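Course assignment 3, question 2. Fill in each field.
Student: A.L.
Task: Predict the tertiary structure for the chain below.
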Amino acid sequence: MKKNIIKIMIAGAILFSATSCGDDFLSVNSSTQPEVGGPVTMKTLNQHLASAYQILLLDNYANGNYNSYILMGDLRSDDLYKGGGEANDQGALYFLSQFKNTPTDVPQGWWSIYYTGLTRCNELIEACSNVIGVTPETVATTLAEAHTLRALYMHQLWKMWGNVPYYEVSVLPKPYLAKQLKADEVYTEIMEDLDFALEGEKLRKVADESTFGRVTKPMAQMLRARTVMYQKDQTRYNQVLADMVEIIDNPAYGLMDDLEEVFLASGEFCKESLFETNQKADGKTWSESWIGFGTNLPAFVSPNGLSDPNDIFLAGWGFAPVRTEAYNIYSADDKRRDATINDFRTGKYTKRFQDTGLFIRKYAARKGYNDVKAGDADLNFDNNLRLFRLPEAYLNAAELLVGGATAPGAGTAQEYLDFVRRRAFGDKFDQNKVTATLDNIKKERRLEFMGEGLRYWDLVRWGDAPTVLTENIPAFSSERTWTAEKSKYLPIPQSEIDRTKNTDFELQQNPY
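Answer field:
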């Protein structure tokens, strides 16, 4: 089901990507890109649109870094270890998992690609002001998509680094630098973009085959909820609860019968998917991380040297093994356990660093998922990354209701929690029913979204990180202490600090 946005990108994105990897984050512009400021036809507008969306296909091998959206939220949690060959195999990721990054070994992929994404969204917004022969309705929708994508990219930078530069032009004046904002100021900018996108009915309420992979109103609403809830902005809780109710009440969406189905190729853009990237097994190479459409996440998280007797799964690199304690939080009746985690403890594979024998199944390397036409096979699996699923809307609503939020037409927290658990337990739901307390809703999020990159951010926003993420486990080489002062934000890459020294835009380093 590789539709729509892939078609656009094949026509236009390579034009944008070929020269991007050498540009620094505040001067991402190229003479090969459509000129900003001149007349913009529908074809040129689509090229700008493809360029802005292309960023969604790059995070898994971000600027030559293994900085997958999924991994960045899970390697620091209590669900996964770093794994791989040894501690120094992708050492920056090991330090990430231990909250010990320094400015010279911090994962930099997100910084590169999301600032490139910011620039491309700015170019798209400027292009919308110069269109010819394009209907007002198309311009309005495109602008809403551009603002949502800009909010998404800044959301990632904001959560990772907090105090970051921000700008709303395609080309910055000399010295090509932008003012660093405080984290609260970045939050304000993100919310302005999302409020603009969600004002009126500019965005489609549901995608069809011609718009799969494109921003929809529910996707923007989900992003607004994640942003507000991470900021703990109680003044917005009623608003985002109303957003969740609108999504839940939309008859176009519903849960699949089995969680396993959602993450198969046949489950792409299924009825519970609110937004996912549109990967394709084609084009990405070891030397060119800014081109192609595939993801290397399945190879990254699958066991090394695997021999699968069922001939379903492929061998990978042995990173991100699931912690035994995470596996054990599932009850025997919970069908999500076997849909989420592959248990290879008695299987044939090569044991590596921090091995538990347990690996994420949702994005496991499967046969037939990396039949590449061009590029390197391990980098080009076609697994779409599911960024927003319907159960999150239900559990957001339950959490907000327990916290005292209100919205017209809202159900009860118990109803929303039960809805998610009924699929998980099937005919054993009654024996496994739990009360909709905040603690039970927190646990349910962990059970439902394990391996999807949400757990760490949840622990931080709940204030649970200092307790849950402080540990000493010598057998698995994990000794770490989480503090809000030094662990919430990563240190800004030293190369970016150096670039701004002795200017009016000198970046202030985060504590580490």
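Instructor remarks: Strands lie at 273-276, 341-343, 358-360, 386-389, 471-473, 478-480. The chain has a mean pLDDT of 93.
Grade: pending
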